[in-house]
Amino acid sequence: MVTASIDALAKSGLRSQGARIATAVASALLLAGCTVQIQNRQAADEMAQRAKPPGSVYTGWRVFQDKCVACHGSDATGTSRGPDLLPRVRQMGARRFIGLVLRRYDWMLPPAPAGRDPAALDALTEDLLQGRQGELTMPAWQGEPQVSAHVIDLFAYLSARAQGTQGPGRPTP
């Protein structure tokens, strides 16, 4: 009788050990499947990150709120003082954007701009500078440290707005 009990215990121990082994194998296979999924997700996330323009959308929004809102509106959709930037940014890359913001003045020329005559162009330039004709609407920002340091962030924010991946209002940091 004692021998039968020992045999029964040994068999049940083997069964429970077999059940534990089966459970461990099933868990390992399940985890292996999850690991592959996580790895695949990681690659997709990396590809999506590379596709986004460099820079911080949140930091760009902060610079925009500080330097650009007065003319372009709080969501970059324009005011009477400045145009809607979203369709413009949608059509340009980061290099062109940086060049326009940092180095270029956007002159609002009269309907019949001076031809190629240097004297007429000089006169028109002087009139514009003195405020007698036309308007200087977009300042070059290369001398402004906050804009210069964060121009790529500004592009990231405006590009996200233009592409529809960032709605109006404050982005999440």
Q: Could you give a short description of this structure?
A:
With 173 residues, this protein is mainly alpha-helical. It has eight helices and two strands, in the order αααααβαβαα.
Describe the protein's architecture and organization:
With 173 residues, the chain is mainly alpha-helical. Helix content is 64%, strand content 4%. It is built from eight helices and two strands, in the order H-H-H-H-H-E-H-E-H-H. The protein has helices spanning 2-51, 57-67, 69-72, 86-90, 94-103, 118-130, 145-149, 151-163, and strands spanning 106-108, 135-138. It has a two-stranded antiparallel sheet with strand order 1-2. Helix 2 packs across helix 8. The termini are far apart. The mean pLDDT is 75.
Major sheet description: 2 strands, antiparallel
CATH superfamily of the largest domain: Cytochrome c-like domain
The whole-number mean of residue pLDDT values reads 75
Write the CATH architecture name of the largest domain: Orthogonal Bundle
Number of strands: 2
Cα-based radius of gyration, to the nearest Å = 32 Å
* Total domain count: 2
Shape: elongated
What's the total helix number?
A: 8
Widest sheet: strand order?
A: 1-2
Give the DSSP E fraction (strand runs of 2 or more residues). under 5%
Q: Which CATH C-level class of the largest domain is it?
A: Mainly Alpha
Q: Write down the CATH topology of the largest domain.
A: Cytochrome Bc1 Complex, Chain D, domain 2
Which short descriptors sum up this protein?
two-stranded antiparallel ribbon; 2 strands; mainly alpha; 173 residues; Cytochrome Bc1 Complex, Chain D, domain 2
